[in-house]
Amino acid sequence: MNESTSIRWQEWTPKAFAQSKSSGKPILLDLTAVWCHWCHRMDQDNYERLDIIRLVNEHFIPVRVDVDKHPEIANRYHFGGFPTTAFLDSNGNIVTGATYVPPGQFEALLHHVKSIYRPPPAKTDSKEEQLGFQAPPEELSMEGTGHALNALKSQFDHAHGGFGFAPKFPLPDAMDLLLLEYVRTKDPVLLGMAVQTLNAMRTLQDPVEKGFYRYATQADWTEPHYEKMTETHAGLILAYTHAFALTQNPAFRQTVQDTLMYVQAHLQSPDGWFYASQDADEEYYSLNELQRTQRKAPHVDPTFFTHLNGMMTCAFLEAGTYLGEKKWIESGLRALEYTLTHAWKKRQGLAHFLENNTRAKPALLADYAWALRAVLSACEYARKTEYVKHAIQLFKECTHLLYDPHKKVFYDVAPSKNALGLVARRETPLNENSLMALNALKLHAFTGEEKYATLAQHVLKATAFQAQDAGYLGALHATACKGVLNPMGVCIIGHPNQEFNDLWHTAITPWDPRKTIVALDAQAQKGIIQRKGFIATQLPAGFVCLGTRCLPPAFTSLELEKRMQERA
To answer: CA-CA distance, 14 to 309, in Å (whole number)?
Structure first.
């Protein structure tokens, strides 16, 4: 198409906003994604029509944003889903908007916005606008973390599993909270809710290629949206891995294996890192295995995103550990090495995504949180304690760029004088802050430095009221709070041999997200051993620390198991 037969899309830049201001035209913001079926339909039904093209080009400043590459924009402007069609004034404030709009209605919407739009008055205050901030509670408490669990109980679908009504999305953090509460209380109802939901969610699994679809449009988990997202698969691998570790249910083990194999076959690059998504194609996914071999598979987005690679690295490392299969651990480590080599540069920091193996955009909080989590998972599950230095560096960078030492919370983006529209109002996303608190707690276990545990408490207190309002979407915050309030650190000290491995296996086997396992070489890591004050009459030895109280060393697996059972 030439310019006269296509919409003259612009990027989210000062130039587009300046054109809106000088011309008196509103901005038409299209939030779209390569994996999004209805985004493609929006193009076909509306943006490829000549009458719509002429109307948009003449009366609007059209701006198109990829929601994966710019989640900070998408999070502030979406209308509940994608595509989002938002109309903005020249200051970036929302005039009106919608998601997918059918052809006849879209033309009417454009005429309506054109007729009502009035340019805003000149903006005189260029300072960054901050969202309101509520003073945190004085202390964290178990009682204060019950909102998410109560919401899960009250909104549980006893007939079909899952929570609430249609549409239904997989909620890995909710599964972890239910499983953790079962570990804490031995309440079979909580385990039953998790198991029923995990069994029901397998309806979303492609029976041929075994990947999971993004979500179900019906309450009984049927009529899926057929996108296959890396984020979805990473979360579900972790959820089913944790359920298998706790229950030893072979069906959960098989689900983990099937999902890992799908990811390896369809979403992993030859260099070992992970792609972003695979497109929806309802017709393709209705075919059997033989029929699919005669059709081209749906498009895979080959973009490297740091947060997605961090998620999937964690999934491979934990799955490989609890399934006892080193190939998955090795695959996760390969992806992590790619991230540390290509997405992170010492003087430039972390990238959000890469284009042609080069940094295309600075990292957001989600990137730091998940890259850090992946590094810590390598330290814990692959016993690669040499990665601790990377974890310390990433945490230092993240706090320097995104942490507010006064409000004691992480922002999603770094401050910028050039931030446009609502992006100037930096947000404090609940899940990423919760994950950073868990990361800090693990860093405390690996370094013995109290500053990390203190920061974890501060962050969780600062986001406590957000968690109350989030309902069951605050599940990760609740899990993190329980980890801070009742942490367990298990240090295995010695030289790698069979006895050392037996102690480590005993330590790692009971799944519990409040627990951190640290494997220390008695010779190479004397410094941290001395800093933690561990003294053993023989090696290998296992030390269990419950909060600030460390128990006498255990020299056999049976002794270590008994020490770990002393958690309050």
So the answer is: 31
